[in-house]
TrEMBL record:
Residues 1182-1374 form the DNA2/NAM7 helicase-like C-terminal domain. It comes from Dorcoceras hygrometricum. It is found in: Nucleus. Residues 821-841, 1490-1532 are annotated as: Disordered. GO terms for molecular function: helicase activity; mRNA binding. This is Intron-binding protein aquarius-like. Residues 546-715 form the RNA helicase aquarius beta-barrel domain. InterPro entries: Aquarius_b-barrel, Aquarius_insert, Aquarius_N, CWF11_fam, DNA2/NAM7-like, DNA2/NAM7-like_C, DNA2/NAM7_AAA_11, P-loop_NTPase. The lineage of its organism: Eukaryota, Viridiplantae, Streptophyta, Embryophyta, Tracheophyta. Belongs to the CWF11 family. Residues 875-1173 form the DNA2/NAM7 helicase helicase domain. One of its GO terms (cellular component) is catalytic step 2 spliceosome. Residues 765-864 form the RNA helicase aquarius insertion domain. Transmembrane segments: none annotated. Residues 52-464 form the RNA helicase aquarius N-terminal domain.
Length: 1532
């Protein structure tokens, strides 16, 4: 298997999505050393003065000031192309800054595409469109949307693109741009308008360009293609008969790929290193600087072409027919022999060639799409080699020795090349071209002996299996990998170059391919994060060389501690068939004496399986000079020699006592706090890395790495779980990875996308008991608008008065697609309505719904089941039906559409219909899991069947403990309660009480005395049904139930009393059933055994996060964990591999997967999973979730279509992104959604914020964007809201950048925290962090004034717009955001209202009766200064009112006294009451709870004063005087 690499040696400058680049001279400092606002950066004023901006304004730009545009000019397109879009020399194929300005101005959407004509548009026009599409892909924008309205024209455009090179010579930069367009097109095969034309290029017609020998060989190997080829030939014959000229070899698809490959080989051979450089290479290469440089543009083109071929071979639809073409031209062999492959400038190219070679020889049956086993690969290798040996024995006398040799002795590269070297060039050419037909005789390279040998060796050598390669790889990164820029790019990837990384595409070759790509990407992403942590921790240690010449440390680090002693304690013998040791353990001793208590507790909290890193630091004797530091590598600057990872086995204190034991060796009551300051950690080293290190010591004489460690480093627990996940992936690769048959093809991206839909699955539930899903009969009817609902009784008769609950028998023709009404058209349907519309119903298919009377659950209140109160919409009902049936169910839940309620009801109905099945719940975050779990607890699922695993369990808002230990304790407590009830029952039956001694004796008691009495009673009832009081008189357990809240029997109706009697018996039945379940906990004595039994046998619904599932997979397998159903919430936020692992937490049964249902719930229109490294995110698509991939593949999904979170007016800001998102009746009818926001003219507004103090956005450090004007403005508005009485916990402040978040927090600490009646808001955070949460009022800062930035990702916009329920106020630069094409639907709505903040200053409390559509006595706020004046005046009024109140009560004015008074007022519920002199009332509940703790000052801020400090500095009077003076000045 080839190695997987990162970027090459080339410098991809650090910038995020859609930033303006800066041309950096090689002699200047690197861009990352400079802030973006230094002289090199482009400013907004420069953009506005730019020539392209002026051209755009005159010709196509759409904004508020746009006037009449000039007519379209093809000459203008040509002028822009040649003057702005072409480059001369250099590595970059386009002037990125110019392309970005054009793309932002909507050059493609408003000018190029509307005026494109397939017949008349020029070459420059087409190339300009290609560049704009490429730019959209670089910025990860939706590139094909603007083409949808003219699909036929788009097909003609693609045809023009395919024939663009005919009769025209392109420059290397143009070839690169053209190639990049083809790469992007082949990455968009899910888009029909693209795939229809592009997939022709990879069709069977491309085999017209194969050499004859290769063509014959491929048809012999793939007989199924012969019929298809004959059909192609028949079309040509038919055309000839009709006299029509038809030559299939002249078709575009016949020669397109072949021509591209030949063009690439020409560039590789003649343009990378021009001829004059190659001529001097043989004379004195070392003195030729030019030869060392090469042509940058040609090198980039060659790298891009490798990426293009890798993409084609890594997707099965294109691979099947393209791989023979690549092999026919012997691309890999020619690349291996090229000058660039061996040159230092070709490092990235070489890595890409290796990756291409890996995919060309991938272990798969191309035609069947089946993964080949290791044995099949080996047998195929032997068969191929044996056939060659037979041929050599018969026809090549010189190779007789090779023909008779053992295959194992000659199938290595060196041995095979040696054996072939005895052939003359002519003989070798004859073997390769004529006998084996590996290449064509016409190939110009066929004259080269080295090439012919390379082709032979590549074809016949034995390749290392992928499984062997992955098992030999250390899981922990070392220093060589961490700081190798070609492996782990330390800078953010801009998208201008390619990388030798695997991509997560729509489709994968096999499950092995899927796992391997994820393994490599996850490993490199983890390495990047570990490296960042090391670079942060090590400099704090201040390492130096002491007088003894040893390394010592002046400083300290929270995450790293010096090692006192390190020794390897055990190296175990290798396992059979392996060379590496089976285990290597060591002991590390360190001291925590220099740490404070908090940090000590963190080190003491280390536990088994935590990952640590051993560092060897050896600084230089003298500090590096400025020149040396500039040239030094990161390792030299840090003095870092070696890095090795390890895993904790156990940790002991100074007395040798075991700490943090979770294995049950130490009982909880015997646990003692750790003693002393020395800690000894037993660690397990990576055996593969240890073997490599020891081998290097023995063979190369290198120093002993393990004798040099002097630092032990830890990481934050939440970020340090990479090893367990990598182990899980590697284990899956070593297993016969069984995905359910119904899911396998869909998972890989092939076959019918609807194959796993429940209507296409076997073993459907024909009758479903929906329990409390439907609230009434009308609810059933409105849930199935396309069916005639017929209510029946259990005996099949018509039910005229149906009541909940209902059972539904689904007809075989039920398609699961109700074509539900849109959210705004959902209405209640009454029985009279359905009767009135009898004619339409007669045409509909009938749906029989059985209304039944549920059995009496028992006489006690706790016996009554908890009922659902949510009136589910038809679409939610459709999702519930899909979820409870077998197969794959996908539910898209837009913001506020009740996806959690839907998920809970699926679990509820599934539990009652399939009580023996077990369900696993997975979410991305603990918060989402807890929300889901808390709602499940409110449904009719017994608590004993619920289990919550992981760290977030303690955050559940319940008194019950749902952890493993908590559930075990609950079962033991419940056992005692039940046995006491059995004892009471025995007394009531006048039997000995010792029957309740154990669960076992209670079981015998049930059979002998309880159940037998019930059978006798039932037999007697049969003969006495005519006696109304018989049940009351003869019920055998009447005395036991004498403590019920009311009388059980009336004695007036036999039927009613019998129904109650059965309820009583059901109560008894439940008691003994629970006791039977408790019996295992009685028999098992160990806490560990009990908790394992609970998890694997007892619990029916088990919930955990995806991270916990990946970490504990091995434990689940060892315990025999089983589950039938998987429900995954937030699945659009979970990485591909973290979604896949939870599907495989159990072993297969008899070769089959047990999983029956997979329910994925998420929203691909919101933000994807977080990937820190931009290279992995943008190039490798590592942030692609499985949910999003399934949606792109066209797998059917149900989209919930009615939101109940926000005002309808606010929902319009984001509902355009969804298919048919309407509003629930609650948000249309509830009074709170009709009332205006007091003090504001509108419920939402875009507020234009100009430069503040002459500045817009700033960046104190790279990519740390801030906007002081927006921060001041937003905090002033917050203070205004608090002065009106808006609760702090109802207000959240969001922003799109971390820098702005911290700036806003600083402003709040300075302006709000000193005033006890204002305080901080509920949250100040970023949009990304706030996903999944909501609040009544959102104040949003968009920060940027120079460029839109990452808000161009529409998913981030949707999250930002959908967090508010009642009010949303957006602060931004209007002129910038109104021009952004992707954001138009939202910003067009926002800009229909004034862009100055509209306030209603006549409203002085947070309550108003004004309707939301009325602005009232409004006032426009001119800007930041006026808003500050208004706030000062409001605060002045509050203090005037306070002062008068104190004077009237004859109390001294003191903030401390006031603070107590306000809190007391709130506790009495006195908020929003007016005080004298029109003062504003105050509500500071947010100070007590619900406030973001990060906002509060921590004592290290010099410009923040708390209310208590104010009191010490002079009390209310001094503050009042200051405010009076300030208010007088400001209001003048």
């Amino acid at each position: 298997m080839t190695k997987i690499y990162g970027t090459g040696v080339y410098d991809f400058r650090r910038h995020r999505v859609a930033e303006y680049p800066v041309s950096v001279d090689a002699s200047q400092p690197h861009e990352s050393d400079k802030g973006p606002n230094l002289s090199g950066s482009i400013t907004l004023s420069e953009i506005q003065r730019d020539r392209l901006t002026k051209i755009a304004a005159a010709n196509w730009a759409v904004n508020a000031d746009s006037g009449i545009k000039k007519p379209f000019s093809e000459e203008l397109v040509k002028d822009i192309y040649y003057s702005e879009l072409t480059v001369k020399g250099g590595r970059k194929p386009v002037p990125l800054q110019r392309v970005m300005i054009l793309e932002v101005s909507q050059y493609l959407e408003n000018y190029l595409w509307p005026n494109f004509d397939p017949e008349t548009s020029s070459f420059e026009h087409v190339m300009s469109m290609i560049l704009m599409v490429n730019e959209k892909f670089r910025e990860t924008m939706a590139a094909w949307i603007c083409f949808y309205e003219r699909k036929e024209t788009f097909k003609a455009f693609i045809e023009r693109v395919l024939r663009l090179k005919e009769g025209r010579l392109l420059s290397v930069a143009e070839k690169t741009n053209y190639l990049l367009f083809m790469i992007n097109a082949f990455q968009s095969l899910e888009d029909e308008i693209v795939s229809e034309k592009i997939m022709r290029l990879a069709s069977l017609e491309c085999w017209h360009s194969l050499s004859y020998g290769r063509f014959q060989m491929e048809l012999c190997l793939n007989e199924s293609l012969i019929k298809k080829w004959r059909r192609i030939a028949k079309r040509a014959k038919d055309a000839a008969k009709r006299g029509e000229p038809f030559d299939p070899t002249t078709m575009v698809e016949a020669r397109f790929l072949r021509n591209l490959i030949e063009e690439f080989l020409e560039v590789l051979d003649s343009e990378v290193f021009p001829a004059k450089q190659r001529d001097v290479k043989d004379t004195d290469l070392s003195d030729t600087n030019e030869m060392h440089e090469g042509d940058d543009a040609s090198i980039l083109y060659c790298e891009r072409f490798m990426e293009f071929l890798i993409d084609l071979l890594s997707q099965l639809p294109t691979r099947r027919l393209v791989r023979p073409l690549v092999a026919d031209v012997a691309v890999v062999s020619k690349c291996h022999l090229s000058t660039l492959y061996k040159h230092e400038r070709g490092r990235l190219f070489a890595q890409l060639v290796d990756l291409l070679q890996y995919y060309e020889g991938f272990e798969i049956d191309d035609q069947k799409g089946r993964q080949m086993t290791d044995d099949e690969v080996l047998q195929a290798h032997y068969k191929r080699f044996q056939a060659f040996q037979v041929l050599a024995f018969k026809k090549i006398p010189k190779l007789r020795e090779l023909a008779l040799a053992n295959i194992g002795a000659i199938d290595k590269r060196a041995n095979l090349a040696k054996k072939l070297s005895i052939l003359s060039p002519e003989e070798l050419r004859d073997v390769v071209c004529s006998k084996l037909k590996l290449i064509s005789k016409d190939d110009p390279w066929s004259e080269r002996v080295d090439f012919l040998i390379e082709v032979m060796v590549s074809f016949f050598e034995k390749q290392q299996s992928q499984r062997e390669a992955i098992n030999a790889l250390p899981l922990y990164p070392n220093e060589q990998i961490m700081w190798d820029e070609s492996l782990v790019p330390s800078i953010n990837y801009s998208g201008e170059g390619c990388l030798a990384l695997p991509k997560l595409n729509l489709q994968f070759l096999t499950l092995h391919d899927y796992l391997l790509r994820n393994f490599n990407l996850f490993r490199l992403e983890s390495t990047y994060e570990i490296r960042e942590d090391i670079q942060e921790a090590v400099p704090h240690l201040l390492a130096y060389i002491n007088n003894e010449g040893e390394t010592a440390f002046r400083g300290w680090s929270r995450m790293a501690v010096p090692i006192k002693e390190f020794k390897i304690t055990e190296v175990k013998q290798p396992n059979i068939g392996e060379v590496k040791p089976s285990a290597v353990t060591a002991e590390v001793t360190f001291s925590i004496s220099s740490y404070k208590a908090q940090i000590r507790s963190e080190w003491n909290a280390l536990k088994e399986h935590d990952v640590l890193f051993l560092l060897s630091i050896r600084p230089s004797f003298e500090p590096l000079s400025a020149e040396e530091a500039a040239k030094a590598s990161v390792l030299q600057k840090l003095g870092l020699q070696y890095v090795r990872g390890c895993e904790i086995v156990e940790i002991r204190d100074e007395e040798g006592t075991l700490m943090n034991d979770f294995t049950g060796k130490i009982k909880r009551d015997e646990w003692k706090p750790p003693k002393g300051e020395l800690r000894t950690v037993t660690i397990a080293l990576d055996t593969a890395q240890y073997h490599m290190d020891v081998s290097d010591m023995a063979e190369k004489g290198l120093e002993d790495v393990y004798g040099t460690f002097n630092i032990l480093m830890r990481r934050k627990p939440k970020e340090n779980n990479f090893k367990a996940i990598l182990e899980s992936i590697r284990d899956l690769m070593n297993e016969s990875c069984i995905v359910p048959d119904w899911l396998h093809d869909i998972f890989l991206g092939y076959g019918n996308p609807s194959a796993a839909k429940w209507t296409n699955m076997p073993d459907l539930l024909e009758v479903v008991d929906f329990k409390d899903t439907f609230l009434d009969a009308a609810h059933v009817e409105e849930s199935f608008p396309n069916y005639q609902v017929c209510f029946i009784n259990s005996d099949g008769t018509t039910n005229m008065h149906p009541c909940s609950p209902f059972r539904i028998k689904f007809p075989k023709t039920f398609n699961g697609d109700h074509h539900s009404l849109s959210g705004n058209k959902i209405k209640k349907v009454s029985p009279t309505d359905s009767a009135a519309s009898a004619d339409p119903d007669s045409e509909k298919e009938k749906l029989f719904v059985e209304a039944y009377i549920p059995p009496d659950p028992g006489p006690y209140p706790q016996d009554q089941p908890k009922q659902n109160s949510v009136r589910f919409t038809p679409t939610q009902i459709e999702a519930i039906i899909s979820g409870i049936q077998p197969g794959l169910s996908m539910v898209v839940g837009p913001p506020g559409t009740g996806k959690t309620d839907t998920a809970v009801q699926v679990l509820n109905v599934l539990y009652h219909n399939c009580p023996s099945q077990r369900t696993l719940i997975i979410t991305h975050s603990n918060q989402a899991l807890n929300d889901l779990f808390e709602k499940i607890m409110e449904r009719d699922v017994p608590a004993r069947y619920l289990l919550r695993l992981g760290q977030g369990e303690q955050e559940l808002a319940t008194d019950l403990d749902f952890s493993r230990q908590g559930r075990v304790n609950a079962m033991l407590v419940r056992r005692l309660e039940l046995l006491s009830e059995v004892e009471r029952l025995a007394r009531s039956l006048q039997l000995p009480e010792d029957v309740a001694y154990t669960c076992e004796t209670a079981g015998y008691f049930w059979l002998l005395h309880v159940y037998s009495r019930w059978e006798v009673f039932l037999a007697a009832c049969v003969e006495n049904r005519d006696k109304p009081s018989f049940v009351k008189d003869r019920f055998p357990f009447k005395e036991f139930f004498n403590n019920t809240p009311g009388p059980i029997f009336t004695g007036q109706s036999f039927e009613k009393d019998m129904h109650a009697a059965k309820g009583c018996f059901r109560h008894l039945q439940t008691i003994f059933q629970e006791l039977e379940e408790c019996r295992a906990f009685e028999l098992l004595k160990s806490t560990v055994d009990r908790s394992n039994y609970l998890m694997t046998k007892q619990a029916k619904i088990v919930a955990m996060t995806c991270t916990h599932a990946a970490l504990k997979r091995k434990d689940f397998l060892n315990l025999g964990f089983k589950y039938d159903n998987l429900l995954m919430e937030e699945s659009a936020q979970i990485l591909e591999i973290e979604t896949f692992i939870p599907m495989l937490l159990q072993r297969q049964e008899d070769g089959y997967a047990r999983l029956k249902r997979c329910i994925l719930i998420g929203d691909h229109h919101q933000l994807p999973p977080v990937v820190k490294n931009m290279a992995f995110q943008k190039y490798s698509h590592m942030d692609q979730s499985l949910f999003t991939r399934f949606v792109r593949l066209g797998i059917p999904y149900i989209e919930l279509n009615a939101q109940g979170r926000a005002r309808p007016s606010l929902a319009r800001l984001y509902n355009w992104r969804y298919k048919d998102l309407g509003d629930l009746s609650s948000v249309r009818e509830n009074a709170i959604f009709h009332r205006a926001n007091a003090g504001f003219g509108y419920d939402y507004q875009l507020v234009d914020v100009p430069d503040y103090r002459g500045r817009g956005e700033t960046a104190p450090s790279p990519w740390f964007y801030q906007n002081e004007g927006e921060a001041e403005y937003i905090v002033s508005v917050y203070m205004y809201m608090r002065s009106l009485g808006y609760p702090a916990n109802k207000i959240s402040i969001l922003t799109t950048y971390n820098g702005q978040k911290l700036l806003i927090r600083d402003v709040i600490n300075r302006r709000c925290v000193p005033f006890d009646f204002i305080g901080p808001p509920h949250k100040v955070t970023t949009v990304d962090k706030f996903q999944g949460q909501q609040n009544d009022f959102i104040l949003l800062s968009l920060v940027r004034t120079r460029f839109v930035g990452h808000l161009r990702d529409v998913r981030r916009l949707i999250v930002a717009m959908s967090r508010a329920r009642l009010g949303l106020y957006i602060f931004c630069r209007r002129s910038l955001f109104e021009q952004c094409y992707e954001l138009q639907p939202t910003f067009q709505l926002l800009l229909q209202r004034p862009d100055l903040l509209v306030l209603n200053l006549s409203e002085v409390t947070s309550f108003t009766d004004r309707h939301v559509e009325e602005t009232g006595a409004s006032q426009l706020v001119s800007g930041i200064e006026e808003m500050a004046d208004i706030v000062n005046y409001k605060i002045h009024q509050v203090y005037q009112a306070r002062l008068m109140s104190h004077q009237l009560n004859d109390f001294p004015a003191s903030p401390e006294r006031d603070f107590v008074g306000i809190n007391a007022q709130e506790e009495n519920g006195l908020e929003n009451t007016e005080v004298s002199m029109h003062a504003m009332d105050i509500d500071s509940r947010g100070l007590a709870n619900g406030v973001d703790k990060d906002i509060l000052p921590d004592g290290n801020s010099n410009d923040v004063s708390s209310p208590e400090i104010y009191a010490k500095q002079g009390g209310d009077k001094q503050l009042q005087n200051n405010l009076n003076t300030e208010a007088d000045v400001d209001m003048q």
